[in-house]
Prior knowledge:
- The chain is an all-alpha fold.
- Helix content is 62%, strand content 0%.
- The chain has helices at 5-32, 45-78, 93-98.
- The model has no long low-confidence stretch (mean pLDDT 88).
Amino acid sequence: xxxxxxxxxxxxxxxxxxxxxxxxxxxxxxxxxxxxxxxxxxxxxxxxxxxxxxxxxxxxxxxxxxxxxxxxxxxxxxxxxxxxxxxxxxxxxxxxxxxxxxxxxxxxxx
Length: 110
Ligand SMILES: [Zn+2]
C-alpha cells in the first residue's frame, strides 16, 4: 500500500462511520416506538411487529458494519489495514474502496 493510501482510507472510514451512526439513530425510532395498542392506524399488531423485526435486523446489520469500520480505523493506526484476517494476504484496493470496512479478501468472504 502506497504511503498516502492509509490517509485516504481513514477518510473513507470516518465518513462511513458518520453515515452509519446517522442510520442507527434514524432507525432507532422504528425499533423503539412500536406501540401495541390500537392507536397505530391501519397497521395490525402483526404488521407492527413485523416492521419492528425488520428494523431490528437492519439495526443489527448497521451495528456490525459500524464495528468493522471502527476496527478497520484502528488497523490503519497500527499499520495492519488492508490485510485479510483469514489468510493474511493483502486485500485488493478496489475491494477496499467499495467496502473500506471489510476485514476479508474476496476469496475468504465467499
Ligand atoms: Zn483472505
